Here is the input.
Amino acid sequence: MFVYSFPGSIKLIHKADLVSPKIRGYEVYTDDIGAKGYYRDNDGAKLVTVKKLPLPDCYEVEGDGYLRVPTLKLSEELRLLGDSFKLRCVREEDGSWRFISFPN
Here is the structure.
């Protein structure tokens, strides 16, 4: 993305490129006509690609650890998504990933 600024004008940057101050959250909008936006806290979650492994209820975050599946309900929902899908997750200190939500 190229951004040009001129004296007396503002310079626009993407929220992912903002270093300081830390963003507390942001508004999210869908593509539905007439739908209202909603506020989402910045929880540090990333959109990651998850692959189902040959073992039951085992999932690998593409090239970077594995997904924790703490509940039976989440396990049942993940089974319906197929062999590869995207999720919003947070990376834990031990290298595993914790599920936050399904992408919008």
About this structure: The helical segments are 72-79. Residues 72-79 form the longest helix (8 residues). Strands lie at 25-28, 38-41, 46-52, 59-61, 67-68, 84-91, 97-101. The chain has a mean pLDDT of 84.
